[in-house]
Design brief:
- The protein has 2 helices and no strands.
- It is mainly α and 47 residues long.
- The radius of gyration is 20 Å and the shape is rod-shaped.
- The termini are far apart.
Length: 47
């Protein structure tokens, strides 16, 4: 149960792999419409 054990989180980190104990982070895709809305909100806050 250490760096050599690929079933544990520490082992996954050491080996550089992913799995149930170390899932990958989900990437949230934003559309251009959402980006434009954020820019408009920022401009309104500055006023």
């Amino acid at each position: 149960m250490g760096k050599g054990d690929k079933r544990t989180r520490r082992g996954k980190l050491f080996a550089g792999t992913y799995g149930n104990k170390r899932p990958r982070k989900k990437v949230i895709k934003t559309t251009t419409e959402q980006k434009v809305e954020k820019q408009e909100e920022k401009q309104e806050e500055k006023k």
